[in-house]
Design goal:
Layout: H1 4-10, H2 36-43, H3 58-71, E1 75-79, H4 82-91, E2 99-103, H5 108-120, E3 124-128, H6 134-140, E4 145-151, H7 163-172, E5 177-180, H8 185-188, E6 198-202, E7 216-220, H9 234-237, H10 248-252, H11 256-269, H12 275-286, H13 288-307, E8 312-316, H14 324-329, E9 337-342, H15 346-355, E10 360-361, E11 371-373, H16 385-390, E12 398-401, H17 407-422
Helix pairs in contact: 1-3, 3-12, 15-17
The structure holds pyridoxal-5'-phosphate (PLP).
Pyridoxal-5'-phosphate (PLP) binds next to helix 4 and helix 5.
């Protein structure tokens, strides 16, 4: 198989003679057929083909195929956002009356989706610490548990998830492991190699990489044996009345899960990505291998500089720690995201943030522009210091996302802002 760098540039698009070198944007809601029977066969899932862009579109599919090739799956779909990707990944196999398990250090948006919104639809959840023991995980599993969910590198804590251990505990109990791989991207970690069954992405972050389009992806490894547990996964292993009694595992084998996500969830919920956004993602993917390397190298330089800085109380960047999980899962770099705290207190923090020139204050991470966010003053400003601590967020935590500028310029900006804050 081609190396990742080559897949970034070529996967998903092999033009024939006289065809466009770059993927075309197929900005069309619908597609033409010649006989009534041709159209009928598409609706019965007897033939594959495009008929309506709410379900599938060629531009969207080409970019999905590119992400699928990088992750090493059997199929992928693109969604309108990362939130939609995680929603689809879960409700493709869990519904009212079911139970799911998730690590508690996941992204705030996903925490709310799984912990507040899905329970309103009858899906129960247990959150566990990301370092829960195998016995603790097993104690949380119930007869109606359908899946386990975690984040390879958590946002914003940048903690590394022990993929192999969680996957083997899940599999011992007949459950799939779904992993949000947004921060590492497949360039730095490929969760399927460690036993994860389904991977999701907020492509809004590094895969786009330029801050232009919100999007998401779901990728299927094809490895989970749904047929072995027909009672637990009836949506995949029993006839679907909305397709004249078709059974996904019988009709689509290893691709049952991802085909159902398109033909059932996309058909009914419609959170598809637009062809234009898929085109931007395709461009982002073509340089992802170069960018992830540079984000990781620059972040390590900045993290080391911060660590040596007298105004800095602490720095958390996985690349600085000797954590064996970092060596195991992220040997090629830890992305550009880190967190640190300053010694001077809240007023000092604010003077520092206000004095930054190159680095911007943004509710975003993981693109080419270096940016900061101070959760206590911004996203979580309604919480007291005690409430922040209870939510696992240090009141002095500043999240820093290293972009693609020269690392020397990023450090110079941090230095001048710290000097200004001391005045
Ligand atoms: C941003 C993010 C999401 C949500 O993605 P959107 O594209 O903003 O909907 C999900 N998971 C992680 C890890 C994220 O960083």
């Amino acid at each position: 198989m081609a190396k990742l760098d080559t897949l970034c540039v070529h996967a998903g698009h092999t033009p024939g003679k006289g065809e466009p070198r770059q993927i075309p944007i197929i900005q069309s809601t619908t597609f033409k057929y010649e006989t009534s029977d041709q159209m009928a066969r598409l609706f019965d899932l007897q033939d594959a083909g495009y008929f309506y862009s709410r379900l599938q579109n060629p531009t969207v599919d080409q970019t999905a195929a590119q992400i699928n090739a990088l992750e090493g799956g059997v199929g992928a779909i693109l969604t309108s956002s990362g939130q939609a990707a995680n929603l689809f990944a879960v409700i493709n196999i869990a519904g009212a009356g079911d139970h799911i398990i998730a690590a508690n250090n996941i992204y705030g948006g996903t925490f709310n989706l799984l912990g507040v919104t899905l329970p309103k639809f009858g899906i129960d959840i247990t959150f566990l610490k990301a370092d829960a023991t195998d016995a603790e995980i097993e104690a949380a599993i119930r007869p109606n548990t359908k899946l386990i969910f975690g984040e390879t590198l958590s946002n914003p804590g940048v903690e590394v998830f022990d993929l192999e251990r969680w996957a083997s505990t899940a599999h011992r109990n007949g459950l799939p492991l779904i992993v949000d791989n947004t921060f590492p991207t497949p360039i730095l970690c490929r969760p399927f190699e460690w036993g994860a069954d389904i991977v999701t992405h907020s492509t809004t972050k590094y895969i786009d990489g330029h801050g232009v389009s919100v999007g998401g992806a779901v990728v299927d490894s094809g490895n989970f044996p749904w047929d072995k547990y027909p009672e637990r996964f009836p949506g995949l292993t029993r006839p679907d009345e909305s397709y004249h009694g078709l059974t996904y595992t019988k009709a689509f084998g290893k691709s049952a899960y991802i085909v159902k996500a398109t033909t059932h969830l996309m058909r009914d919920l419609g959170a598809i990505q637009s062809p234009q956004n898929a085109f931007y993602l395709h461009l982002g993917l073509q340089t992802l291998h170069l960018r992830m390397k540079r984000h990781s190298e620059s972040a390590l330089k900045v993290a080391r500089w911060l660590q040596a800085c007298p105004d800095v109380a602490w720095v958390h960047y996985p690349g600085l720690s000797g954590d064996p999980l970092v060596k195991k899962y992220l040997p090629d770099g830890c992305s550009g995201v880190m967190a640190f705290g300053l010694k001077g207190g809240r007023a000092f923090d604010n003077r520092f943030l206000d004095a930054l020139k190159l680095i911007t204050i943004e509710t975003h991470v993981a693109d080419c522009h270096t940016c900061v966010l101070h959760p206590a003053s911004h996203t979580h400003r309604q919480l007291s210091d005690e409430q922040l601590k209870a939510a696992g967020i240090a009141p002095d935590l500043i999240r820093l996302s290293i972009g693609l500028e020269a690392p020397e310029d990023i450090i110079e900006d941090l230095e001048q802002a710290l000097n200004a804050a001391r005045q």
